[in-house]
Amino acid sequence: MSVIQYLSVAAALLLTLAVPGASYALEAAPAAAEKDLRLEVLHGTIQPGSILKLSLTGPPGTNAAMSFQGSSRFFTGRGGDDPLVLFFGLGWDARPGIYHVGIDVAMPDGSMKRLSFTLPIAERNFPRQSITVKDIFITAPPESVQRIADETVLLHRIFNASSAELYGKRSFILPLSGKVSNNFGEWRIFNGTKNSRHRGIDIACPVGTPVRASNDGRIVIARDLYYSGKTVIIDHGLGLFTFYCHFSQLNAAEGQFVSSGEIIGLAGATGRVTGPHLHWGAFLGNLPVDPLSLLEMR
User: Fold this and answer.
1) Residues 206, 207, 213, 217: is their CA dihedral positive or negative?
2) Residue 72 in contact with residue 50, Cβ under 8 Å?
């Protein structure tokens, strides 16, 4: 079940967050109480691979930055009727514990405000799977090496060129109905030697099943890639992307804007796969995050 935490800075509310195996508090520091600021944090279970959405409401002209473990991340928006928004992702190597998060707010009159809350990160154990496959699935032929290198550069560039406008303002949805394998971050050992991490989840489905956009956004990739086959990547803005792989048919074009629920292709088994399914992933910049956590940001 998703959890929505409302941090009302005006009242300096103390709210309880349920985390498996423990109970913590997510709170706004009393010293940060200001009547004209309100911070909302949307998330589910906070654990490695999770993504959170922070929304700060303040007067027009407000700017803000979040500081976490020595690095800063900037909110986007203008304030007033346009809340400042920041997506914040936890890598699969995030360590469990209770962390301090600070938000520095520059007010329109030039004054600075400081908000803060504690962030409890729960422990998460990722599964391991040993898989035996034909060598072609783990060792690329010489004639494909340059193609793979070019596609790696392309994806890196795409994930670093997100829109500064938030397109995906609705709740995220599953792209299709089917048996979901909750295998984000799974360690995979191929033929007893090669290790990799699974950067998404798999949804079982027959070839030809319609696949829908999980939220509004702009298509930035709609083409065949060596490993993922016929692939669609949607930029939802502010660094957040969703990734759909192994289509049998693409129904979207690069540069096209799509709405949540719009069909973007038909599921298949293209690329380096052993059977038909949809691989669904999410990236915050180049950081892979668990796409199922998007469904909990309500």
Assistant:
1) positive
2) no
**pLDDT of 34:** 61
Q: Distance (Å, rounded) from C-alpha 73 to C-alpha 53?
A: 12
The full set of domain ranges for the chain reads 3-121, 128-296
Of 199, 203, 223, nearest to 271 by C-alpha is: 223
Contact 185, 126 (CB under 8 A): yes
As a residue count, the chain comes to 298
Q: How far is CA 40 from CA 15, 47, 172, 263, in A?
A: 12, 19, 18, 31
Classify strands 263-267 and 240-250 as parallel, antiparallel or unpaired.
antiparallel
Contact yes or no for 181/209 (Cβ under 8 A)? no
Q: Kindly report the CA angle at 267 between 206 and 176, in degrees rounded to 5? A: 85
- d(CA 115, CA 117) in angstroms, rounded, equals 7
Q: What is the pLDDT at residue 235?
A: 98
Please state which of the four CATH numbers 1.10.3720.10, 3.30.930.10, 2.70.70.10, 3.40.50.720 is assigned to the domain occupying 128-296.
Answer: 2.70.70.10
- Tokens representing 260 are 């949540």
Q: What is the 3-state secondary structure (H, E, C) of 194-227?
A: EEEECCCEEEECCCCCEEECCCCEEEEEEEEECC
Write out pLDDT tens, residues 23-78: 233 444 333 336 689 999 999 999 999 999 999 999 999 999 999 988 899 999 98
Distance CA 290, CA 5 (A): 20
242: nearest Cα among 270, 211, 217, 267: 217
Max intra-chain CA distance, the chain: 65
Q: What is the pTM of this model?
A: 0.88
Edge-to-edge strands, sheet with 187-190: 128-131, 187-190, 194-197
